[in-house]
Design brief:
homotetramer, alpha/beta, Rossmann fold, Dihydrodipicolinate Reductase, domain 2, 2 domains, six-stranded mixed β-sheet, 13 helices
Amino acid sequence: MSKLKVGILGATGAVGQRFVQLLADHPWFEIVALAASEQSAGRKYGAAVHWVLERDVPAAVREQEIIRATPEQLRGCCSLLFSALPADQARFLEPELAAAGFAVFSNASAYRMEEDVPLLIPEVNPEHAALIRMQQAKRHWPGFIVTNPNCSTTHLAGVLKPLHDAFHLRKVLVVTMQAASGAGYPGVSFMDLLDNVVPYIPGEEQKLESEPRKLLGQFAGDHIVPADFIISAHANRVAVRDGHTEVVSLEFQHRPAVAEVVDILRTFRGLPQRLQLPTAPPRPIIVLAENDRPQPLRDRMRGRGMANIVGRVRECPLFHIKLVLLGHNTIRGAAGGSILNAELLARQGYFPDFTPDSDYTGAAS
Amino acid sequence: MSKLKVGILGATGAVGQRFVQLLADHPWFEIVALAASEQSAGRKYGAAVHWVLERDVPAAVREQEIIRATPEQLRGCCSLLFSALPADQARFLEPELAAAGFAVFSNASAYRMEEDVPLLIPEVNPEHAALIRMQQAKRHWPGFIVTNPNCSTTHLAGVLKPLHDAFHLRKVLVVTMQAASGAGYPGVSFMDLLDNVVPYIPGEEQKLESEPRKLLGQFAGDHIVPADFIISAHANRVAVRDGHTEVVSLEFQHRPAVAEVVDILRTFRGLPQRLQLPTAPPRPIIVLAENDRPQPLRDRMRGRGMANIVGRVRECPLFHIKLVLLGHNTIRGAAGGSILNAELLARQGYFPDFTPDSDYTGAAS
Amino acid sequence: MSKLKVGILGATGAVGQRFVQLLADHPWFEIVALAASEQSAGRKYGAAVHWVLERDVPAAVREQEIIRATPEQLRGCCSLLFSALPADQARFLEPELAAAGFAVFSNASAYRMEEDVPLLIPEVNPEHAALIRMQQAKRHWPGFIVTNPNCSTTHLAGVLKPLHDAFHLRKVLVVTMQAASGAGYPGVSFMDLLDNVVPYIPGEEQKLESEPRKLLGQFAGDHIVPADFIISAHANRVAVRDGHTEVVSLEFQHRPAVAEVVDILRTFRGLPQRLQLPTAPPRPIIVLAENDRPQPLRDRMRGRGMANIVGRVRECPLFHIKLVLLGHNTIRGAAGGSILNAELLARQGYFPDFTPDSDYTGAAS
Amino acid sequence: MSKLKVGILGATGAVGQRFVQLLADHPWFEIVALAASEQSAGRKYGAAVHWVLERDVPAAVREQEIIRATPEQLRGCCSLLFSALPADQARFLEPELAAAGFAVFSNASAYRMEEDVPLLIPEVNPEHAALIRMQQAKRHWPGFIVTNPNCSTTHLAGVLKPLHDAFHLRKVLVVTMQAASGAGYPGVSFMDLLDNVVPYIPGEEQKLESEPRKLLGQFAGDHIVPADFIISAHANRVAVRDGHTEVVSLEFQHRPAVAEVVDILRTFRGLPQRLQLPTAPPRPIIVLAENDRPQPLRDRMRGRGMANIVGRVRECPLFHIKLVLLGHNTIRGAAGGSILNAELLARQGYFPDFTPDSDYTGAAS
């Protein structure tokens, strides 16, 4: 099997670095293009990047030359692009690239809530990928845009999914304590976060209150009918490097027992698990029994950063259930989530020239 | 006016140090006894204490000798005691001291929820002080015990008070992000909190779900009828030195306008403000307009650590109102709150030998 | 006495904010001009500044309009300017302002090592102020530039001064552990400093190895003969907000006793102390006896941030003496140092229209 | 090859946990005994330990029962013990165990400087292991004690070794910035280290000034002649989890060129590398070229925590060379160092019943 050639847009930023790190040894994908701003273009990746992740710049890309993120530069070298662009650049560039035939897997918020753009988490709503054909027809694009949600939404929706299926959600109150890496690099000043909490993240509460309803909504032929529960969100920045912690109170159609909730979460497996996608964690949700967990420091790397971790499932005096959840915001909540989307579509035949090897013989969705 | 002589129990601990710091130049009270554990007894305070607060050990107490916290040691030197004892010691020692005639102002949780013990915040429920006479009659104590609430409860109840009066609370969902100093000294290990959130504080959620209902309850002759709203609490420890941040969603009997809520909070003044008690902040609640405030680093010292700070008052999609509040947990939430209780009772004549000077000429309570 | 009108260049940055804070209630100086970049010009100071210091923007300047830092804008409103400009802007603007008649007290590194520009710490080398007349003659400037040293140099030179006078220094090995605020705002990313040490600060070691020799050098009529000791510096950034800690090993002409060194440091008083300048700390050097002090958290605000704090004076197996020193880098090490320079010159008659009130009747230098 | 059965003393503490983690999948050693204090004895390791390391308690030991650290309890189950005991317990227990026939590899400081006890780093002084036979003869012990140095000494000596061999050291000035984990768990209070530097670690400077001279000393038949260079140390605690950073100024018999120093460090390989011991890093010293490295956050895990990392090699104005070095204090500086010692002795035949498999066919020392 020869690998599928991929490019990374915004490759020198914090999320771009995660893409590089996670794709360096990927069994299906091979990085052939690293695109960044004009200042970096022409330089070697290893020299241009201010690497902020654990371990080193992967050897395979250190000497690769950075190009500019234009269709002209990218054409011919690859057809699949991972985008770590900021929303304002994504807004203009991603449609241009989709129109030029690229499959764009975007982390940006620019197109997440568009009616014909899938907002995709493979464990949550793989059937929403069908919007792609609609998008291509409607916009006359040979390529397409698929988005993954905001980091804090990804973890929340990943945990709500099996509970909504089992008990039908009515109300969700979520309070986030988000890591600094969510703001990119350099992002938050040390002066603003040492010995501090900042009880505000621009735009975050709106995303948390809307994106999960699209994610858990129903595919209705040519659009998504949003789920009908209500969400209230409080978003906070705390002095943590990686890992968003979220405390949640939930109300369902009927009150479930705590043990039922735990059981549903523990035993949940999604399509990526059944398809054994390379980046899929064996268990998408890990439930911890200790009363002071999950903690970002100690639990963010479970499932190689791709699992959502749950703890303290208990009764809520106001709603039905309360719990704590945690996810790695730049792996599952950003680059890793995007890569899992690409793996899903690759397995489902969206890239005709590429057939992943697989022992898997079951019916894939 | 000669000052009222006071003692501090647990004077070398973190809260004990706050008592020492806040009482060092107090206009009404004078520290004459510093009581601590057997290991420290007999040593000079300045030599025995591992001072963890800003600025130095006050000069006035540096050479004072530490005594043991027994009625025998304390008798004769003072009649008012501030207790920073841990709950397990307070459980045995505080009744003994009350029985021996001392007025004990306790930070411990041991007696807060006893029917005949006032759980007191002067701005919130000064009329509950009347339980003291009942307590003395029932227990045949010449002295008494008055408690102040758990730190996170103090800030919450201080903000809920005027809103409950105005709009009648139904539901309170509170999520705390609490500072390390709340766990005392040495308290939390650096290894447990650097780059981390701990989503659990033993006993804290139960306190937050019960104490505010007693505080906002009605004095009914010989007991308190708890307020009838329901509270759900999630308590978290974050990497902050001082200052508990709490995000709150509130439901009332009827939905108030955001502007009404802001106005009620801004203009609220309690009895300590009318009485101009020395430790009372001019404004018990300060409302900030910036969208990313309050922050513990920047706002905890407002009102010299005695104000509760509110920000981000806005509509809640699930309940009626959501907001952020902040208080200094070892000043307003502990030692300062206790001192304000003592000032209130001093002004109200509970210490017959002591009459505070005052320009105040209005009707006190 | 009417106050001397002053302006602040770079008023919205981190050091500019310190100037604003320290000058807000100054007995001699009054802020009449706040100059900043084009983007801020025309806006109210309180609205344009992202305030990063403890407490609020002083009320007196909140409504003051920001102007651009040009001679035209500043002319007429004041003659004394405090400059918190970055070096590259200072290089062009400060001479222009001096040529236009302004007295410029600069924090920038641009002109510190120029032969005719005083690098001034009032306790260390007040006699170097005489270079001003030379500078004015040589450059035909009606105004002048006076600089204060790099923050880490200021604390080091402040401690070395009395020891060099007493024992004649030969060798200085200094290792700094510097606070984040030294890099300004936003300055250091949270991602770079949480759980980390960065063993490099651009340009810092060169400054530490050269500036102290000019500061402790001898005024020789028209230039300074640098002191003849040798310095080796290692500069590090640590996870601290404010306060530079420096560990030092010293060799002198002859080995002094530890007790002599402590005594010299403790009893040292400089010209600002004799003149009782408003910003001068009563004791320029404070020696602590505890074996684990000074610490930035607990000692940086001694002398209202204007003292240098020394601890752990002991024998060095390689040189003669080793010790730890600490200073507040944005107060004594930046804005406060500059203000003290201006106070010295004001007292010495450099501003003819202004005579500070004083009880002081001694001979001022 | 069947594995050598080993026990861990002090298995629940911070260093004990590192032993457990590093030995869980060890190719030569198998944990059969976990010894701890009386309170833990009898409990399952997974339940008794408060695990503070990354990842989980290894599955293999989770259900293992903790025993007390006495010869009676340990006899029969293993003959090799790794000791993570505090010095005061080590002082009494380790000789008792050596007398009872155990080979004790100790992290404690109790016996490091005894004349007949090897203070061992396999890359630095493997020939010192010969002291064991002397120790056994002199003390009539069937077992023995081998120690590894204090963490900060380990990293320093590991870097000095090849330089001393090449250029003969005269003077070493070292300033450490040490991580919190060096103080064990709970160790340093969050209240003492957030936003702070503590310029003192009890006993550390004495160890740094003496242990390297024994390590680099010459084996003289029945004792070690200490190396004749002089060391001056300043030890500081900084807000870092793991990884001690040390800045060093060095003087040699003759001034070497910077390039020579870099070359010597880069190409150095020791006996563990030649023997390919399982825990030996391929390169014991890694030299980084970036001017702001090594940093504990980003470089401590190089060589799986067993390498010493060097950067900023440059000329020193006072001595000859200055540089920055970094090591992982609980891996190379504690548990990993001890395990490497045991591997060396195992390879050299000190455990007659155990012969490690090996492709290595060269002459082992």
